[in-house]
Amino acid sequence: MLSVPLIIEKVFKMKILPTFQKNAAMRFIYSIPPFRILLHKIAAAKLYKTFGGHLRFFGIGGAKVDAVVERFLREASFPYAIGYGLTETAPMIAGSNPSQTFFQGIGTAMPEVQVKIDNPDPRTGVGEILVKGENVMQGYYRDPELTKSVFTEDGWFCTGDLGCLDKKNRVIHKGRLKNMIVGASGENIYLEDIESVINNVRGVLESLVLEQKGKLVAMVCLNMEEMEKSYQQMRSSTLQYFIDKKEEWSKQKDEYVDEWNKQKDEWNKYVDNYVKELKVFVNHRLNRFSQIHSVVVVPTPFEKTPTMKIKRYLYS
Fold this sequence. Notes:
Layout: E1 2-3, H1 5-20, H2 24-30, H3 33-50, E2 58-60, H4 67-75, E3 80-85, E4 92-95, E5 108-109, E6 113-118, E7 127-133, H5 144-149, E8 157-165, E9 171-176, E10 180-182, E11 188-190, H6 191-199, E12 204-212, E13 215-222, H7 224-234, H8 239-244, H9 253-283, E14 294-298
Parallel strand pairs: 1-2, 2-3, 13-14
Antiparallel strand pairs: 3-4, 4-5, 6-7, 7-8, 8-9, 10-11, 12-13
């Protein structure tokens, strides 16, 4: 079976993870590694049956896998595998099988494919991933200028992706080159790494970090179902209660409207407080130059490509 990361991420974050966070006792148990691993194995066994019970290979490609989701897959011994490539490379560049996966990495280059890192950072080893091999295209159809722009003078194809090679010469993908910005003091800031931290906050469905006027702004789409559950746990009377009571209270319209407005104000305050706490929580987990300046809540999920990547250009 083949999948993009977003599919398994949604299954985990919307179906599996909420069962481990439904109350304080469960969250405490889940925070203890041995119990977390056990719970992951139990959840994965059910997921395995959902896929027919005979799954041997669950290939993931098209984008980087979220770290928390991959931890679940690894601890649950789920037979996942990672592949990396582009349409221009037909498409595989590097990958692994279920027995060779390693955390937040890709794997070794495919046979007859060469991979090297261009201009690696002296500290991290991260640079642009370059590729050579028979799998690489000859050029873009009737576009020699574009073709010239993606090949080096000695014939290496420039992927536009950031990455590094570990001691075993395995490829580790760090994100898109165009999604890296340089900070005021010359630091490399990886927007996708910031998004990964945000996306693992309870209540967040997905996020997009952009640079605006020299500041980092996080656009966040909230998981409203999860937010409402948390809100309901906080109060005994909820917004939905008043929706259900609308017909019964129709004869007392003024009272209903007043109470409804009161509930809306409380809900808005709840969301505002959540956003403030989100910013503090995320920034405590980021280095100084990667911290977000503000958080903007968007009402609907971001538009995506066929491979389920967010269309960043629509929001920049």
